[in-house]
Amino acid sequence: MGKMGQKVLDEALQLDLVERAEIAAELIASLDGERDDDAEAAWAAEIERRASRARTGEDGGRPWSEARAAARAALDER
Question: What's the rounded Cα separation, in Å, for the pair 78 and 70?
Answer without folding.
Answer: 13
